[in-house]
Amino acid sequence: MIKKIAIIGSGFSGLSAAAYSSKNGHEVHVFEKNSSLGGRARQFKTDNGYVFDMGPSWYWMPDIIEDFFKDFNKKTSDYYELIPLNPQFEMVFSDGNMALPQDYSEMRNLFESVEKGAAKKLDEFMHDAQYKYEVGMKDFVTKPCHSWFEFVSPKIAKSALKLDLLSNFHRFVRKYFSDPKLIMLMEFPVIFLGAAPKDIPALYSLMNYGGYKLGTWYPNGGFYKVIEAMSEIAKEQGVQFHLNSNVDEIKIIKGKANSIVVNGTEIEFDTIIASSDYHHTENLIQKEYKNYSEEYWEKKTFAPSCLIYYLGFKEKIPNLKHHTLFFENDLDLHTSEIYEHKKWPTKPLFYACCPSKTDENVAPENCENIFLLMPVATGIEDNEETREKYFLEMIQRLEKHTKSSDLLSKIEYKKSYCINDFKKDYNAYEGNAYGLANTLNQTAVLKPSLRNKKVKNLFYTGQLTVPGPGVPPSIISGKIAANEATK
Ligand SMILES: Cc1cc2nc3c(=O)[nH]c(=O)nc-3n(C[C@H](O)[C@H](O)[C@H](O)COP(=O)(O)OP(=O)(O)OC[C@H]3O[C@@H](n4cnc5c(N)ncnc54)[C@H](O)[C@@H]3O)c2cc1C
């Protein structure tokens, strides 16, 4: 039977769910509240010639993204050019900098120069991480996670111990390296998973493999190229997109989702897949059909929100790489202020992305496009004065690192984005940027369920359900939801 399917939201998970549902032979409509596609990965252009990706900037796990295109007999290269970044990124410490080369033998040399024996340790670390990546990203994350029985297979049982689900990442990294800079370098990727390294299972060293070993890439034209490519594929499959279309309600009659109300108009559907933030979606349905209570959400560990500045500089800034991590301060202090104390950081770490170092199309000639991103706790007070205080600190540290002076006078475009914007633009619970943290008790079956337990034709997808936050997992999430909804 051909089903009429509504997808709420057009981020990576919504686009993926739409493309696969349509490929599976159904009539698919995507309803997006904003005026452009892409959700957290939207892009905007300024009148004075800057092009800003609003969200993702680290293109990691290229093979997982490629898999989406393969499923539609396409290649990423049909849509965009991937440029390898060398160095992959630079880290700024209080007593020096470290740039991670793209080439693995150079990476080994760098490790050895910092700590005797670390090159061999890196080989061992990556060997283990590759195994986790292959089992984790190919077998583990593709499960709908309705029950632990899905994980009962000889292959997974055999690999369970080697996956290091029960040891934590903080301890794990220290088994290999003792130099504080190498430790920070290896711990940094798990920040994407939204929790402190001590709360993340060591399984996630797979991120180091999917990032450092498979390399850091840049889609020429910006990350939005991926959104454009995926929406083109969805359109080729017959998906119909409806922008500026806010879903106000999901109507459920006798345990069946019957229709959605879009900008006040009711439209009937056979099946609904919501990629809007999970907590918000639950507020679109009657209380008795919700999967989870308010108390459930209050107890969850959310990945951080972030303070972002999109900046256009009317001059080139020297000594700056495409990706720079400002880690002059203590990672543990910053993460404890995000997750335990829930307050603005006293000594923040932040990240600067300068795509105009690689791509001449994202800024006018001889100008620089930079976005600064500082992770912050969800749900804390967000106001202009606080944003500005951190902005000035980040600019000062940028000046020091790049040996530049008076950067403020060179800014010709400036826009900030933080907790209140995440709430307003994406209906994000407590203004979260990255969804739910991948802690052990929020992994697999313990994540919010992909299906509504009382309403058979209502499904959830995206970074708040399985497998978790990030571009590759969100794409996989859409595929799982589509397959569940159309089987
Ligand atoms: C600043 C930032 C940087 C990031 N950097 C990286 C990175 O470098 N690499 C990486 O892999 N990941 C990164 N991520 C994470 C990644 O971007 C997300 O995990 C992913 O984009 C989430 O996709 P999604 O489809 O789950 O959600 P979203 O993109 O939020 O999509 C949900 C959509 O639903 C829409 N919606 C909500 N409510 C309604 C409604 N009632 N009616 C209609 N539509 C509605 C929203 O407008 C939105 O478009 C970053 C995220 C952020 C915020």
Description of the molecule:
The protein has 487 residues and is an alpha/beta fold. Among the domains are: 4-41 and 223-299 and 437-486, 3-Layer(bba) Sandwich (FAD/NAD(P)-binding domain), CATH 3.50.50; 103-214, no CATH class. The protein contains 15 helices and 19 strands. The strands form 5 sheets. The chain has a 7-stranded mixed β-sheet. Helix 3 packs across helix 4. The longest helix is centred in the first third of the chain and has 23 residues, at 118-140. The model has no long low-confidence stretch (mean pLDDT 95). Flavin-adenine dinucleotide binds next to helix 1, strand 14 and helix 15.
SSE layout:
Layout: E1 4-8, H1 12-23, E2 27-31, E3 43-45, E4 51-53, H2 62-70, E5 82-84, E6 89-93, E7 96-100, H3 104-114, H4 118-140, H5 154-159, H6 169-176, H7 180-187, H8 206-213, E8 217-219, H9 224-236, E9 240-242, E10 247-253, E11 256-262, E12 265-268, E13 271-274, H10 278-282, H11 294-299, E14 305-313, E15 323-326, H12 331-339, E16 350-353, E17 368-376, H13 384-402, E18 411-417, H14 419-426, E19 458-460, H15 471-486
Parallel strand pairs: 1-2, 1-13, 2-9, 6-15, 13-19
Antiparallel strand pairs: 3-4, 5-8, 6-7, 10-11, 11-12, 14-17, 14-18, 15-16, 16-17
Helix pairs in contact: 1-9, 1-15, 2-15, 3-4, 4-8
The structure holds flavin-adenine dinucleotide.
Flavin-adenine dinucleotide (FAD) binds next to helix 1, strand 14 and helix 15.
Pathway: Carotenoid biosynthesis
Family: Belongs to the carotenoid/retinoid oxidoreductase family.
Organism: Chryseobacterium formosense
